[in-house]
Structures are given as C-alpha cells and as structure tokens.
Amino acid sequence: MRIQVSAGGLSGATAKSGLLAIPLINGKGSSEKGTSAHLTEVDRRSGGQLTALRAVGDAPSKRFSFSTAPAGNLPAEQLLFAGLGSAETLDRQAILRWAAAVTRKLAGRNVRRLAIDATPIIAALKGDAPALYANGGASFGAGIDARSKERLDAGVLAVELIVRGVIEGSFHEGLDGKSHVEAFPAPLELLEILLPSGCDLSAAKAAVRRSEIIADGTVRTKRWSNRPANEMPPLGIAEEARDRARAVGLRARIIGVKELERMGAGMLLAVGRGSDNPPCMVVLSGGAPRSKDPLGRRLAMVGKGVCFDTGGISIKPADGMEEMKMDKNGAIAVIEAAATVAQLDPGRVIHAVAACVENMPSGHATRPGDVVTALNGKRVEITNTDAEGRLILGDALHFAERDLGATHLIDVATLTGIVNSTFGGEVAGTCGTNPDFLAETHLAARRAGEVYWPYPLADAYMKNMDSWAGDFQNSGTREAMLIRSGLFLREFTTVPWVHLDIAGTAYRRANAPWAGRGSTGAAHSTLVELAMGGGVRR
C-alpha cells in the first residue's frame, strides 16, 4: 500500500478515490467551530448529502457508526460519513480505532483507493480534546498530570494515528489462518490523507514513515502471537527471532538448556521440565555493548513466552485452554518492539529478553512442593505450577540486569487472570519500583494509544508467600493475588523496574469494529514509545 499526504483539504486530493471517509465529531467548543465551515463545504460539494442524512436522522453521531452517500463533485466515487463520537472524550486510542474501523468497513467493497479527510480530526486536536491528554479523563497516580498538554503538531499527530489505524485495520489473518474470506477488505493500493492548508507536509511525510514502521511491528506481533503452539514452540520463537534480528541489524543470542543449567536459571528450567519442547532464552541487542541510549539508560524489555500453558501439574480446566497459545504474547511484543526500535533509530541501545517455555504435565514435570534455586540464588517453593509466568520472568529479569547491565527494566506478560477480572479487556495493569520510570511508562502508553492503570506493591502481602522450605513461595493465598505477583517479580530486580500485565488486553475473543478476534499486539507500541524517549516529559 502506498501512503501519501496532501495539503489543501478536499481540493488537495491528487487522485479520485474509491471511498472518501469524512469523520463526524460531536461536541462543543473550538473543535465544533473548526469543523462547521469544512462540513458545510462537504455538504455543498456532495449535493447536500449530509443535510439529507441529518434530516432523516441517519447522520452518524456515535463512534463506529457509518453512512454511505454519493460523492457529488468531491474527489471520490462514494462518501463514507464515519462517526468519531464526542470531542470531549476523543483520545488517541479513539482515533486509532476509528481509522481501523473505517478500513474494515471496506469489506465487501471493491475499493483499492481510500482517502481520509483529516481536517475535522485536526480541528479537534487543536481544540484540546480533554481526553487526548488525560488518557480517558483521569489523572494517573503514577505521576501523569492530566493538565499537562503536549503541544504536538496536530497534523502530524493525526497522520500518525490514521496511518497506524489503517495498517492495523487492514490486518485480517484470523486465528485459523484464513485469509480468503470475503468478509475481509481487499488490499489497498493507495491511502491518501487530506490535510488542510498550512500543514507541514515534510513533517507529515516523516510521520507516515515512522507510523508505517510501528504499525508493521504491531501487525507482526499479532501474526506471531496468533500462531498455534504446534507451529511456534520455544525454539521456533528463537529461530524466527534470530531471522528478525538479522533483518533489522540486531545481535541475537539463543541460550539453550545446557547453558541455562550452567547459569543456574532454576526457575525457568523448572517450568519447561515437563515438555518435550526444550525451553530457551532469546536475547536481542542493539547498539554498542555496555553503552547507553540518548537518555542515559540501558533499557531491557523482558517478555513472557509460554508457548502453551496447561498449568502443569496444577492443570487448568479444559474449557478455554486452547486460548493458552496466547500466553507467549509478552515475548513476541518485546522481540518486535526491539526490531521496531532498530528500524526507527539504527544503532540505538536496546535489549529484549524473551523467556520461552511450554508448561506441560508429564512424569518429568515440576510438582507442587518442589523447591528450585533462581538465577539470583534465592530458593523458591513452588506451590502452584500454574503460577509459572513469574518464575520464568524472575530469571529473565535478573539475567537482563546482571548479564546485560540493564539500568532500567520493563517486563510484559499475560501474567494473571485476576488482572482481567479486575480491569477487563480495555485496561492493563502496571506496577513498579520507581515512580519516575512508572510515570514515563504511562506517558509512553498514552502517546501510543494504550491504557494502563497502576496498582500498589504493598509489602505487607509478602507474608502471604512465606515458606518454611525456601525463601518464599511462588503463589500463596488468594488474598491480593495481583499485588503478590508484582511483589514476587520485585525480588529479582534492583534497578528501576516496571511490570505490564496484559492478560486482559493481549487478545480479543470476539470481533470488534476496529479489529478481529485474536492478538491485539498489546504493549508493542508502548514499548517502542518508551524506548524512543516518548515517555519523557518535554
């Protein structure tokens, strides 16, 4: 797909599109005033189509509502009036999802050229839509000040969000790998984004390239994560990660069982012991060894790569177990985030560590009551083999700090079912040891269009993991299970660390207007923003 940006509004189109999408935004204030004259022009040039729709109550007002109409003398074969909801609740995620939903509305239409009118969106951005800066209208306790507004160029921001949304919305590979179903849109040949006069076209074109790279990484994350366990065992991830590293100029190291044994990664090995597919640790690195990025950091991203999770001896219920092929999403996210960063800024210092295992029951599997020695020397009593993610992450986090010299750590994992029941499928949970780094992560997420919410690391709950056989247990009582998962991971870090629990947001069980079922690519764009300095307040 070729992407181009054109200035001059509706008159600036360089080619007649098959479909021209016109966003309709409700609300009061500067955003409404900024679009009224523009929509009047749309109505006039289309022969009064918007007026006609409003007269019969068919003009889209709610987000993800759509109406088609003849284009008149506008540069398109047909118009798509697409509701973007209220300006008061407009945020980056909403714009991303709107652009993706517009793309998915092409299903069943022979549209190869799509144009999107960005003028109403830019007017809303210039109107300081409250949620755009407040991440859903809330001031985060992790240091995010809802009153602090980024003064980014509205045209550039609109282009970034539209490009990412269209590319992500074009992804249509289902969990079953079917790509021929007519319910999916045909591949686009051209996306043209129409900007009002006065926009910086040079900056907008740079935004296109940046957004293409990020969106491609998100799509790759989805595709990898959707693959079934029989096609993607631990060493399968390692092989593809090595190929990906070679393609983008990263160094790759695959640490197999024998080296893990020599290192003393007892927790990771314990989880993988029951499977015929051996565990491994995948390490991708960019930049000169032991150097730092422009922010003075050596950032390491650590991901949970459980290719399939039966629960081990503490076996899960059969219903829904097939979804556990999604338990590798964290590992795929960090691998692809490192690859994306390498493309955006070749030579930038970045590390990704993916702990890859299968958690299977067998005669060799780790049992409840077993005691294992972690890479940092701590003795852990395993009371629940289904609390395996924290075990492999603990060894991987310590490795990243000790062996890679990481000064800042962030891990991503589909870690706990409780975060899903607490926050649902739209909000991910976070915790961390350093308020400033946690605030940077939340700001990066906001810029990426994702939503995270912090929970506390209350020391009092460590007593719930007391063990007479080891230093502590990997599980414990049901009280404060979410907090205790963070407390466990904290035992393996000494530098600033943030944990992202994406168990609720990593994949969708049903289609949505902006995406199909399967992996969402969660955390990828947040990690990229964080690594590129997007979490540092300017």
Secondary structure: number of strands: 19
The parts where pLDDT drops under 50 for at least 5 residues are 29-33, 133-151
Distance between the termini: 34 Å
Approximately how much beta-strand content do the residues carry? 15-25%
Structural class: alpha/beta
Description:
The chain is of the alpha/beta class and 538 residues long. The chain is 35% helix and 19% strand. The strands form four sheets. An eight-stranded mixed beta sheet has the order 7-8-10-9-13-17-14-15, with helices on both faces. A six-stranded mixed beta sheet has the order 1-6-5-2-4-3, with helices on both faces. Helix 7 packs antiparallel against helix 11, helix 8 runs parallel beside helix 11 and helix 11 packs across helix 16. The radius of gyration is 24 Å and the shape is elongated.
Which key features would you list for this structure?
Aminopeptidase, eight-stranded mixed β-sheet, six-stranded mixed β-sheet, 16 helices, alpha/beta, 538 residues, 2 domains, Leucine Aminopeptidase, subunit E, domain 1, 19 strands
